[in-house]
Amino acid sequence: MRQKIGSGLTLGGVLVFLLVPLLVPNGAFAASLMPVAGVAWWVWVLALFVFSFFLGIIAVIAGVGGGVLFVPIVSSFFPFHIDYVRAAGLLVALSGALSAGAPLLKKGLANLRLGLPMALLGSVSSIFGALVGLALPSSFVQLTLGIVIIGIAVLMFMSKRSTVPETIEPDCFSQMLGISGIYHDATMQRDVPWNIHRTALGSVLFVFIGFLGGMFGLGAGFANVPVFNLLMGVPLKVAVGTSGLVLSINGTAAVWVYLLKGAVLPLIAIPAIAGMMAGSRIGAWLLPRFHPKSIRVVVIIILAIAGVRSLLKGMGV
Amino acid sequence: MEKSRESFSAEVERTYAAVLERASIVGIAAIAAAYLLYVLHVLPLSVQVHDIAANWHLGADELVAKGLSPSGWGWIADLGQADVLSLAAIGFLTMTPLVCLAAASASFLKRKDYAFTVIGLLQILVLLVAISGVFTSRP
Question: Chain B residue with minimal CA distance to A277?
């Protein structure tokens, strides 16, 4: 009981830390941030590290990869050009997934047979997405990002079943590839077997998601989770864990496009990576202690606010 | 049959997880060490930190044009400079999935799971193409 209260307070504190900046109008910060000459560079770097640490905790629990929150918030409140923020966002999502990957795989919360085919398709499209994203105006990217995120949040809000989907009949593709599994749900105190269906449609969507992830400089966990969970029938915890596996591979493919185009600045990227990796370790430790329903609520709230924020910024508001 | 496939999958996942755990620790240690060398000015820099901070509001194309950020693989010759070493460390960290995929593919092959061996090898090929810079090289 005391552990549950502690976990809830930790999560609540992190949420407040992340939501307050999102709710403040852009103009309130933009004017004071522009003349950065008076602020030492290390202040920005330290602030970025602290922000990324808290983001790391919430990103693993919410299964959103971090990049989807990192890019709109950092590009609004830090004096860096969005090119470096997008590259750092990809690296943040990637490093968070790498950091949390091993414990999630060991607990059966990330599944290779489910993740690898989707990652293969998504990584090819993410390379092309990154190339297109670097060629497009940043305002267009921001606007379309907002629309996509709000759409996903609405989809998750409307859905009635996602924690552990009802028993489903596996389709021929999933049977052919042997995609199924069992995981132990600590909150339900039982083993949960699962199968998947709609594998072909899911695969097509992962091509699309990979493209968007590369284009926006995001990990795309925000889209991986609902496709796994709502469309293909994967239990939410396995969807969250496997999403990290997929985005660690897709992120690698896309980030090299940014790196080879000169958009990766170690001065910005490394504090963000270090903060995210430290935070995501704590997030992975907290993940089994949360009920899937509370994870879903966190995902919806954060996605909706980050989506509106991105949309307004894309429209120049 | 179902049970043996589950236990086989769990075995491959443990292999992947073990490699991922070690490789990500090495990767993060590499970027932490390189970053300390960078910000503490232990090694010479190709671009001073205050020059980057004064220009980080500019886009990547502008920074590359000013010679403040490297593009392509040209930076590999300057690994003795701390900022370039930091960039290389980031590149090294992002190669973690490659090592994990190689281990998982070998594990799939050992158990004669040819479909997933091919998927693993194709994934490695895609990542190598991205890293090679074939699609990002300037004309």
Answer: B28
CB proximity B58 to A under 8 Å: yes
Between CA A57 and CA A282 the distance in angstroms is: 6
Which residues, 6 or more positions from B112, have their beta carbon under 8 angstroms from its beta carbon? none
Taking every pair of Cα atoms in chain A, the longest distance, rounded to a whole number of angstroms, is 63
Backbone φ/ψ region at A178: left (φ over 0), alpha (ψ -120 to 50), beta:
left
Cα torsion A60, A65, A67, A73: sign: negative
Please answer whether residues A70 and A247 qualify as being in contact, where contact means their C-beta atoms are separated by less than 8 angstroms: no
Tell me the pLDDT band of A259, cut-offs 50, 70 and 90.
very high
A219 closest CA partner among A92, A34, A58, A75:
A92
Q: A167 in helix, strand or coil? A: coil
Cα–Cα dist A100/A126, whole Å: 22
Q: Do A260 and B136 touch (CB under 8 A)?
A: yes
Q: Is the ipTM of this complex over 0.90?
A: yes
Residue B116 near chain A (CB below 8 Å)? yes
Q: Rounded to an integer, what distance in angstroms lies between the CA atom of residue A10 and that of residue A299?
A: 16
The verdict on a CB contact (< 8 Å) between B101 and A249 is: yes
B139 Cβ under 8 Å from any chain A Cβ: no
Number of other residues whose CB lies within 10 A of the CB of residue A200 = 12
Query: Which residue bears the tokens 């935070």?
Result: A279
Q: Best mutation site among A60, A112, A191, A248 for testing chain B: the one with the most B CBs within 10 Å?
A: A112
Question: Does the beta carbon of A68 lie under 8 angstroms from any beta carbon of chain B?
Answer: no
Q: Tell me the Cα Rg of chain A.
A: 18
Are B9 and A111 in contact (CB < 8 Å)? yes
DSSP E strands, A12-58: none
The residues spanned by each domain of chain B are 2-95
Q: Which of B84, B93, B125, B132 to mutate to test the interface with A (most CBs of A within 10 A)?
A: B93
Q: Do A41 and B83 touch (CB under 8 A)?
A: no
User: What are A192's two structure tokens?
Assistant: 């949960």
Q: Which residue of A has its CA nearest to B58?
A: A81
Q: Is A266 within 8 Å of B34 when comparing Cβ atoms?
A: yes
What is the three-class DSSP state of B63? Answer: helix
DSSP code per residue over A198-244: -HHHHHHHHHHHHHHHHHHT---HHHHHHIIIIIT---HHHHHHHHH
Q: pLDDT (tens digit, 0 to 9) for every residue of chain B, 139 residues total? A: 455 666 777 888 889 999 999 998 899 899 999 999 988 889 999 999 889 999 998 888 889 999 999 988 988 988 899 999 999 999 999 999 999 999 999 999 998 999 999 999 999 999 999 999 888 775 5
Asked whether the beta carbons of residue B126 and residue A124 sit closer than 8 angstroms, the reply is yes
